[in-house]
Amino acid sequence: MHRAATPRRDDLVALTQAWVRIPTLNPPGRNYRGICEFLATWPAAKGFGVEMIRAAGAPADSDAHPRWNLIARHEGAEPGECVHFNGHHDVVEVGYGWSVDPFGGEVRDGRVYGRGACDMKGGIAAAVIAAEAFVETCPDYRGAVEISATADEESGGYGGVAWLAERGWFDPDRVQHVIIPEPLNKDRICLGHRGVWWAEIETQGRIAHGSMPFPGDCAVRHMGAVIAEMEETLFPLLAGRQTAMPVVPEGARSSTLNINAIHGGEPEQEPGYTGLPAPCVPDRCRIVIDRRVLIEEDIAEVAKLMERVKARRPGFAYEIRKLFEVVPTMAPRDAPVVTTVAQAITHVLGRAPDFVVSPGTYDQKHIDRIGRLKNCIAYGPGILDLAHQPDEWASIDDMLDSARVMARVLGMLLLR
């Protein structure tokens, strides 16, 4: 069965190139409809029913940048379980340092280059080729095969998988197995991911003239005390915590906190402004923090830290605003999709897979938390370290091998 994917190598390359050439940049969410319309033509030609769904009212959805999603479904000859492949079609900004056209889809040395080739248009292409090979080779299978291309994973997934899950598209009565072809390597099964807590911390002071700062209260100095306390107590505390989750890379098995941004005092002026800043004591300072959470811990340390600083600094006032929170998730090792994909990898690649957990979140969080479906993993081609990098690429051999694994998984689950 998996051998039926091998002759489709040229189709796999052409499909990946075509998708890379559609710049689905997020933010703001460009060309979402265009990529869904293009993707729809491939499974529709193989007898899949295709539905385009706009996440109307979702965060960031607008008439200028509507949040379009695609779901393609093929019904077997008899009722049975549904295997669903889900991938996000949005990509992050290009950045600097490219030696190739980020949206050229160039093929060189057995690789497809371009923004999103690795994360994760190559993975979606592999799933499409696997599904096509399976339904053509085994038209009398039991159950259903679904493929979805969804929006906004790079910014939380709320215009894609979360919106669909809230409306029952991933209900366990409708879908029984989910594979997300994120780039975690073709011989790895990703069981889940760490949690995340994003927050904005604001320190508050009193504005005054810069030549007479004494009536004021500098919010930036207050924030300096917060960061100093983080360096002295919080960062060492987090570094000393280790998880039993098989997170990769090794450094991500500790708790982590990143200060994403800091803003204090007078706002930056527009480019081209040539004047000097005003002499003021800043009365507000804000940082945005990105706290990555292990399955064994909670996130109470930040609030405790702020209270320690407050106890030592007269007039210290602050506010913490939660921006985003996701609890850690991990599929059981004995879940049907885990054991089936493991057997397929061993058969196709000739070696047993590694089991890993992702340092960052992806759309499994919504399928688990909102859809209530635990039988979900990430498995797909690509090297995680290449995601969001200049000269991002996906190996053609790896995409084809993953497509062969996915086709075998379909046979094992739907031909029983």
Structural notes for this entry:
The protein is about 30% helix and about 25% strand. The chain is built from 9 helices and 16 strands. The model has no long low-confidence stretch (mean pLDDT about 95).
Q: In sequence order, what are the helices and strands, one letter per element?
A: HHEEEEEHEHEEEHEEHEEHEHEEH
Mean pLDDT value: 96
Q: Fraction of residues in helices?
A: 25-40%
How many strand elements? 16
What is the 3D shape? elongated
Estimate what percentage of residues fall within beta strands.
Answer: 15-25%
Main sheet attributes: strand count, strand direction, barrel closure: 6 strands, mixed
Rg is 24 Å
Order of the strands making up the biggest sheet: 1-2-6-3-7-15
> Helix- and strand-based class?
alpha/beta
N-to-C span: 14 Å
Low-confidence segments: none
Number of helices: 9
